[in-house]
Amino acid sequence: MLSICAMVFVLFAFNACNKEQLPAGKAGIPLTIDATVGVQSKTAYAYDAESGIMDVSWREEESISVISFDASGITAIDNFTSTGEEGRDKAEFTGTWTGNPGDRVICLYPALSTSAGSKLFGTVSVGDASIALNSLTSSVGKIVKDTPSSLADADVMVGDVVISESSASVDLVRQICVFRLTVTCSTTAWYDDYYERVSTVKISADNAGTPAVIATAGALDVTTDTYTGSFAATAYGTIKFTLNDFYSSDLNTSGGPKTQVFYAPIFSDGDLEEGYTLRFHYGGRSKEGWGASWESVETFGGGCVQNKSVTEKRTLEKGKIYGFTMTI
Predict the structure, then answer these.
(1) With contact defined as beta carbons under 8 Å apart, do 11 and 48 qualify?
(2) Which phi and psi angles does 82 have, rounded to 5°?
(3) Element (DSSP H or E) covering residue 115
(4) How far is it, in rounded angstroms, from Cα 172 to Cα 90?
(5) How far apart are CA 88 and CA 110, in angstroms?
(6) Cβ atoms 258, 252 nearer than 8 A
(7) Are 50 and 319 in contact (CB under 8 A)?
(8) Do residues 79 and 111 lie in contact, with contact meaning Cβ atoms separated by under 8 Å?
(9) Considering the chain, what percentage of its residues have pLDDT values greater than 70?
(10) How far apart are CA 232 and CA 143, in angstroms?
(11) Closest by alpha carbon to 230, among 40, 92, 2?
């Protein structure tokens, strides 16, 4: 298993695909790409609570998209696949490369041909000068308690392909960070005589009310003059995740305090500067009395509104895990 060098940094403790579009007659060249992920990726996750390190590895079947581009934009889109032993730390991806001599070549994960990739990146075509990134929530159905497995479909990675006479290789670099939320649900109901189920969390950051840092959309420039190797934010705002199952989440106030851990993928761009506010707002469903109907609640009151003022600059680095502990 590949071990990611990503310790959990506790920032605050709170108190309460598209088919390939190729020019006609472009035959392509069979190619194998050796993919490694250095200290930052992929794809099965196992979290070690004592060391604070996320171990990741490739699944049995994986796909990546190989994007070729020149000074004008994308010249070819090729999807490569890898099959092998689950848990391996290096994967060999095979496919047919249809780029041109002199093109810059990168790999994009998740592949555009997968369900996750089509949701995250939308339509990507030959001739495009950038690749759009949608909200990470578009590919994450729900975050399941106590397991980081939900991260897989939102684990955006990019890497430069190095092609020599005898081989090709890529070192993929993660474009997201991870928030590890340790949430304790207290025994005190937020509304008298109500039943509550906590099943959503909204995460945002702002500077005096102006959204910042937590990105809801981004773009990767893919021309040889503008390519940086990283997605840049194009919009900031609030991201909303479903926790467990929206209709039957067991994060609630019955039966005594409950503590659950959630791993949320975050596309951040910029730092949490002094004076910024970081917000975690919890919602879900409630009903008044045993026989009443369940109603959706955007944000519960009391400790479910967690706002923390940043008193000193905090850097959010892609590929790292940041821990937050809170009681709601």
Answers:
(1) no
(2) -140, 135
(3) helix 115-121
(4) 11
(5) 17
(6) yes
(7) no
(8) yes
(9) 81
(10) 25
(11) 40
- Total-model pTM: 0.84
Partners of 174 in the beta sheet?
157
pLDDT digits (tens, 9 = 90+) for 122-165: 899 999 999 999 999 998 888 989 888 888 889 899 999 988 77
Cβ(235)–Cβ(216) below 8 Å = yes
Helix, strand, coil percentages for the chain (3-state, nearest 5) = 5, 50, 45
Residue matched to tokens 């067991």:
250
Q: Which of 274, 278, 280 shows the shortest CA–CA distance to 306?
A: 280
What tokens were used for 99?
A: 């780029």
Instruction: Record the tokens describing residue 315, joined without a space.
Output: 């850097």
Average pLDDT over residues 195-218: 94
Q: Which residues 6+ apart lie within 8 Å of 87 measured at CB?
A: 1, 44, 57, 58
CB 273 within 8 A of CB 301: no
Mention every residue, 6+ apart, whose C-beta is less than 8 A from residue 292.
none
What is the C-alpha to C-alpha distance for residues 202 and 58, in angstroms, rounded to an integer? 30
Between CA 215 and CA 270 the distance in angstroms is 9
